[in-house]
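Entry 14: structure prediction run for BTB domain-containing protein. Input pasted below.
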Amino acid sequence: MLVSSKHLSLASPVFKAMLQVGFQEGQELSTKGTVTIPLPEDCDRAFTILMMLVHAKYKHIPDRLILPTLTNLAVQVDKYQVHDCVGPLIIEGWVNKLEDDHASLTEPDQSQPHNLANYFDPKMCRAFERIAIAWVFRISHLLMMSTRFAILHLKHPISTTSNNPCRFKEFLDKLPIPQQVFDKINSRREQHLNTLSEALREARDHLEDPKNECCQVPIDFIRHNCRMNKLQHFNVILEAQGLNPLPEPPYPELSVKTMKMRLEPIFIDAFCGTGDHEAYFKDGKGRSGYFESIACRLYYEEPGLDFQDIFEDGA
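Run finished. Output tokens:
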């Protein structure tokens, strides 16, 4: 591809430095008038579009890009620091017309091997590609939608520095997403799972406390048996839902979505029939649907992250 070194130097501080006489490429350009720069790691399709933008050849720019091409373009824009070449109207048009429709971010694909299903689920990978695009081009609504999906569906803390499976780490390393974005996603995910786990722990602690014997039965051993029956029933349900022992941070193999589904059938049964008057059943606590309602509220009210969330700690 024949391009203008002047255009490259004006658009990109990376190419400007590369084409100075202090570098081999710059020396060759100075002596021969032309230079060949191999870029084997760059996607040809995305780089061609980027050069059209740098040279202001807007008639040759496609009005629709598939997600992988737009992701590669974002990678190159970040790599060569040519953000100003991509106008907001152009990028918004591409994002709005993505052939890989936003609606595809629904449920993770469970067809992958168990230990890699979360990391190599195509929808999760597409979510992180969208996060990269949103980050590079500062598109708030795309960032919120994509981080929301990650927060609710990730089954492990995500990082470019932790012990993620090697291939997924390589995938993340190629994306221009800073660590503070991963940190915020991890924090929000863990916060939700803490809330749900604590609701179950609070219920079990209440049932284990002898001070909370059934208050409506006058016979002591019946009051005790009532509480113990409720505790046993509660533990059986927890066991059946894979929540006994109660999950702990960093919550491996557990997403907010999965936790929500496991909480749906959980409730505390008052065998004596007087549960309406017990302390723990006030305001519906422990009744059928109580734990599910907490999970649904967290799940459906999670907005995702915006740029203010990410930068609020001065990152």
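Notes: Residues 104-315 form one domain. Will compare against the previous run tomorrow.
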